[in-house]
Amino acid sequence: MEKINFNLLFDPLSLFFLGVIFIVCLPSAIYSIGYLKGEYSRAKIALAWILLLIFVLSMGLVVVVSNVLVFLVFWEIMSLVSYFLVVFDDKNEKSIQAGLIYIVMTHIGTAFLIAAFMIMYKSANSFDFLSIKNACQLMDGQTKNIVFLLLLVGFGTKAGIVPLHIWLPAAHPQAPSHISSIMSGVMIKTAIYGIIRFVIFILGVHSAWWGILVLILAVISCLVGVVYALMEHDLKRLLAYHSVENIGIILLGVGLAMFFLSLNMPYLSIFSLIAGLYHLVNHAIFKGLLFLCAGSVYKATGTRDMEKLGGLIKKMPQTALFFLIGAMAISALPPLNGFVSEWLTLQAFFLGAIKVSGAAKLFLAVCAAMLALTSGLAAACFVKAFGITFLAQPRSSFALNAKEVGFSMRLGMFILSTLTVVFGLAAVFVVRLLAKVCGCATGIDLNGMSFSLNNFILNPQPGTSAYLSPLMLTLTLVVLGGAGFVLYRIFNRKATIYNTWDCGYYKLGGRNEYTATAFSKPFRIAFSFFLLPYRKTQKIRESFYHVKSFAYETHTTPIFKKYIYDPTLDWVFKSAKFMRKIQPGSIHLYISYIFVALLLLIVFMQRF
Amino acid sequence: MKILMIILQLILFIAAAPFLSGLIAKIKNNIRLRQGPSIFQPYYNLAKLFSKGEVVSQTASWIFWVAPFVLISSTLAAAVLIPVLILASPMHQMGDFLALVFIFSLGRFFLALAALDTGSSFGGMGSSREMFISSLVEPALCLVVFSISLQFNSTDISAFSGMHALSVSCIVSAIALFLITIAETSRVPVDNQETHLELTMVHEAMILEYSGRSLAIIEMAAYIKQMILFFLIAQIIFPIAALETVEPAQTIFWLLWYLARIIIIAISVALVEVSVAKMRLFRVADFLGFAFVLGIIAVVCAILGV
Q: What is the ipTM of this complex?
């Protein structure tokens, strides 16, 4: 047995992920000062801080260790601590339930990882990353394929790719909001780290179908995530579904990089990986921000149900602004960071479509179109999320009595929203930095590769004049908008403040407003083949002639739960029940089992 | 020189865009054997709106106030992004064809929020429908961009601005873009600009609470967006070389053909509008699905090189 070394690895890839962890965890920690106060008892607050510390530390160690065994240990610590954080509200039945789903799923994932690592160990006789990397060069194709699939399922469970996402929308919203922010922003990214580190860096991409498989899973995750998000009225669950979507977008970049690596196209693989990692850091920032904002809303109103909110922009103007920035970024609106990374991903698809041949061109074009559809649906979803939660009139007393949250919470959100803007405007610098990270991950020499014209203009297609300059775009928007505003002021006419037009009836109230359910109705109908909506209307009558009120109910069918997880669970429980028959509780029987097992073992040892 | 070009282009768009809407309305009326308002009616409307005061809902927040400016600035940014008078767009370093798609969505996002801001159900209805339609437009538009860009090996808009051979792929993507334009400029069969019936309106429902100058700005932005889209279709299907000679006779001919192209598109839009009935909202998904399929065909043609 070899000695286990605890050496840490600080190559650009690890440093990048450490940076991402730091960027999100610091503001979230600041935020938690205000968030925890008043929400929990002092002992619980202390516990929350200790768990947060261990959680952040374990995530940091996961991305810097250089030994598979040590990696697994910290991976497991990370999963367990986050489980404790999910069930932090231990009085809440939902939290316990969500925690259970989470811990089961995450351990299934870890089981696959262990299997993959065992195979790697067998060929390398070492747990060290570098010696495994060397051994993997000699591994035969079939074994590589198996290891890849095991790793994909293992890390995919943690990342929440469809159909392994089932735990994510359950667990993320139940944790305290600063933890949701870290889980969605950072923890699921450690799975992406795992894929890049173990599949691209150590194993080496072996054949083209790996990339294609990842791309297909990514497209499915994007669409399923965003469609479910559109149907959701719980603010934090909505955000959690968007994490599924955004992991899909990140994996589009990573999958493309794998695809190009197998085709031996160095420039394109670096560029796609840059796009993926750029979206990764962007998603960490804006999703962290959005979860913090959702937490503020929850803290101020006591509910996460959008149908009970509304009008918060007047009660909580700063939180509303921060949420708007996050919503714009996640909807890929220029000039914020989400726009830049989605543009880069689309460019990667386009460049690939030029270079590859035949049907692959069409495949890439269709993937790109699906990404475009995703960003369109995400924009719709965030019009809903922001519009219903923050605009118009309050829909209930929860929203009516809301107050702006405390300073530390606003500071946490402020830091992240500033970063959202900075990462959009400083695109060229980010891309240059990421190029180094990707060079390290893929082992490709970066000489002669340039992704920008100068410090402000991106140019992903060297030799052609396809540019993007977020800074110039911002300036243009500001100048044009400003000119419009000046003109507006010159022709100054008085604006009358009056009621919204109410068709001549009484004054409009919160109950007249469009709801989140109504907003998403066109989508529910257009995607009914997938959502399988179910609705029930019922007239509650006083007498035959007089209808007192209507009851209206609508659901969508959670098909993954219904057709995959529920039958599996059923089967597990049935077989458990069957197994119970051999466990009647009689100690004599048990001793005989041990005896029989012993005999069989002896025979086995002698025979083989 | 560059600044001058930008300003010239902006002025061109602002000055000419309302005319196209007036023209379409006139053609539609004439086909229906009505006289209809003057071709310059959009200008009169804008002037009227600009000289009026406005009524703002007391429910509205600052989103309602800034939305028209975000809308107009993003639309104008799109207008300077495309090459109109010379081969290269004056601001081609700002973004490319793909960026154009995202720039349009910025203005739409704010308008949809402003629609929800007043707390009127009409606004919510319009906002929901607009986002529904636009999210379905996005993949088709992406495929159109892809098929065009694949032929010219670059996503730069200037790449296809000159004279180019007309391929099957160009024609199919132009048709797809035409369908997208109908949806994006709220024309029949997707939406109807002429009606304020709550069951059918989409764009009009969104801007129902706007009045006065804010409404004028929004209307202006809609005209400009329409002109940009017409221009792109014209550029794809009727390629034209840049103006190089200074001979007066040739220049005049060039200019005439230049304008005629866009007017041809406007006429076809008018013809489509009078000859089909408005669709139910949920049929729009099929309509845009057709645009998506056309986009795929265009990409396939581009791959085959025809």
A: 0.95
